[in-house]
Amino acid sequence: MLNAILPVEAYTSEQFFQLEQRHIFTEHWQCAGLIEDLIAPGDYLTAKVGLADILVVKGQDNQLSAYHNACRHRGTRLLDGKGKTGTRIVCPYHSWSYDLAGNLLGLPEHKRQFSQLDKSCYGLKPAKVGVWRGMIWVHAKPDAIELVDWFAPMAEQLAPYDIGSLIESPDDLVSQEINANWKIVVENYIDHYHLAHLHSGTLSMYDHKRAKFGFADHHFHFWEPLSADYQQDISTNAPLPLLMDKADPTLGAWVPMLFPGIGLAETESSWSVFHIVPLAVDKTRVNIRAKVKNTSSLAFMSQAAKSYAYWQRKVKAKSAKQGDKHPLGSGDFMQEDVYVCEQLQQAMKSPYFSFGPLAERSELPVYQHQQLVWQLIAPHWQT
Ligand SMILES: [Fe+2]
């Protein structure tokens, strides 16, 4: 029998949360944005990588560089959010300034205030940046494993799409707070068992029985084909223009979860990143950005019109009697997921709470993800 590895405290303890921030999120590659976010020299974005604060800037040579987002004088945060910084980065506190290569430039009243200062010792601390699958990735350590090596085990486990050729769909930009621990959100994402149950009316366009999934090193891979009725007339039924040939035998959805907490959903007609960001032990933000085929708006309108009747028939609320204001009556699979995640977090408050057994095939990934987390945290965890 397969039993959960992590104790309940892994989902409720502030101490456990802080250990994860330090030993999981600060120590692994994180997604910081899409390549479209940084176009011209001076464009920048900032990202939290666990406890570290990183900035990525496009240099005069059009190359990306990443630094710790802290002035070398008093550690003040240099840049916020994303935007344009021009040719230099200036600290708001005492106006220490840096060029886009991270070098410390002149200081106000430098000679008088710092008689012995060697400016070459006070450049911005480097971090590491890379681009993979149209996304900008950052790591707090400049000598971290190469991004391509980190994702090498997933090379054969993703959709055969050129992500760079797709265009962002701003309508699908979603940022949602979920009142649950980040691991509950991840475990729900990689749980095959619930698909045919919780989402019986909302994800029935895929054939869950034929899903293939597992872990490749740190990352979860998942693929499932279309359901027979959806596939039968896919040119009409697809809600958006298809990204693959309709006769391709691999037509379906690739839904990996990259460690730690970066889900992708690469379906027959859209691509999206589902970035799980822990905010507190019982609060998580999910940022979703989606891309679609680079084609005319007429093609999108025509596909939406053609497929309308199919979706009207196909999508059913889990529990219509609850009304469409209730997550289980909404007919929206994401709201169904948020509901069960928040319910579980609530349930864990009870001193009578305990986990039951995990399904041996369909929930094996949940067990394996717990194993990964436990390996990283157990050496530091004291009860
Ligand atoms: Fe789900």
TrEMBL record:
Q: Does the keyword Metal-binding apply?
A: yes
Sorted alphabetically, the keyword list is: 2Fe-2S, Dioxygenase, Iron, Iron-sulfur, Metal-binding, Oxidoreductase
Q: Which PROSITE patterns match?
A: RIESKE
Q: For the Rieske domain, which residue ranges apply? A: 29-138
Is the keyword Iron-sulfur in the record? yes
**Molecular-function GO terms, alphabetical:** 2 iron, 2 sulfur cluster binding; dioxygenase activity; iron ion binding
Cofactor(s) the protein requires to work: Fe cation
| SUPFAM superfamilies linked | Bet v1-like, ISP domain
Please report the name of this protein according to its UniProt entry.
Aromatic ring-hydroxylating dioxygenase subunit alpha
